[in-house]
Write a structure and sequence with these properties.
Elements (H helix, E strand, L loop, with lengths): L12 H31 L5 H8 L6 H39 L6 H12 L2 H14 L11 H27 L3 H9 L4 H31 L12 H12 L2 H45 L5
Length: 296
């Protein structure tokens, strides 16, 4: 018997039989639901070749135009995500360091702003960048790119910069107090200690969470489609299915593209995490070897 059986009562023959019967019933119900969905879609003609041909048949007259739109939409999505991530990280580092280093009372206004931005949906922040900021005199014209691009980026940065700040703050707070004390003892200022000792370690510790938030930024670029005017990937998909009357097929491929890009970023996070862990383990082993006294 497995050692895990000490943690729970091993199921007897009747319990195993009930589990098998329950699994079969659930499986049959799922198959029934899938068949009903298939029959409903088939009745609506969703499996007709003319609906799929513009996306999968190179000989179709719309195939080239459709994939050019998707390509341009993906480029715009990635451009917006890259700019938003870069600005969010830069601002997030400043905000996170300020929250850690300010006194208890002096950081109250900063904490209030962070909580407000964290509590607002990203689409609301984008809409505020679209409607509210121009009304108070913010002008996007000197910036490269369209106004709609900066509505999207502004909303993403407003939300994600405080998220990155909280991630870095958590990383700094997870470090042993001796790290900060050691920096101060050797004559570094608190800011130098933060910049040279604590922040690099916090980045390494929280790198998986940072990259996971980057995936969120990429997905949230699609929210600008509710305002329109910026042809990112989802908006390009809307243009396609409004002209070809195939929303299910178009959104299916748009979803596959988002999944592929986000899966790639997630795998990158796992790869970076493993490399950082190996590097840290190697450095720890090297320090331990150096600490061993050499005997003649």
């Amino acid at each position: 018997m497995s050692n895990l059986s000490v943690l729970y009562d091993a199921p007897g023959p009747k319990a195993r039989r009930r589990a098998v019967i329950g699994s079969v019933i659930v499986g049959l119900l799922l198959l029934g639901v899938l068949y009903l969905v298939y029959a409903r879609l088939d009745d609506k003609g969703q499996f007709a070749s003319e609906r799929w041909a513009p996306l999968i048949d190179p000989s179709d007259e719309n195939f080239k135009a459709v994939w050019e739109l998707i390509r341009d939409g993906l480029k715009n999505t990635l451009a917006g995500a890259v700019v938003a991530i870069a600005l969010s990280l830069a601002i997030g580092v400043v905000v996170g360091v300020a929250r850690v280093m300010l006194g208890r009372r002096s950081r109250i206004p900063l904490v209030a702003v962070i909580e407000v931005l964290r509590g607002l949906p990203v689409v609301v922040l984008m809409y505020m960048a679209y409607q509210l900021l121009p009304d108070v005199g913010v002008n996007y014209e000197p910036l490269p790119g369209s106004d709609a691009f900066w509505w999207m980026v502004t909303g993403l940065v407003a939300y994600n910069s405080v998220i990155f700040a909280e991630i870095l703050r958590a990383g700094v707070n997870s470090l042993p107090r001796g790290q900060r004390e050691a920096g101060l003892v050797i004559g570094l200022t608190p800011l130098q200690t933060m910049r040279m000792i604590e922040l690099p370690q916090a980045f390494r510790t929280m790198l998986p969470a940072i990259i996971s938030q980057m995936v969120v930024v990429l997905k949230d670029t699609s929210l600008i489609a509710f305002i329109g005017q910026y042809p990112e990937l989802l908006k390009s998909g809307q243009t396609i299915y409004q002209n070809l009357d195939n929303p299910l097929q178009t959104l299916f491929f748009i979803g596959l593209i988002f999944i592929a890009v986000n899966f790639t970023l997630s795998r990158l996070a796992m790869l970076v995490e493993r490399r950082v862990a190996r590097r840290s383990a190697g450095r720890s082993a090297e320090r331990e070897l150096r600490a061993v006294p050499v005997t003649a």
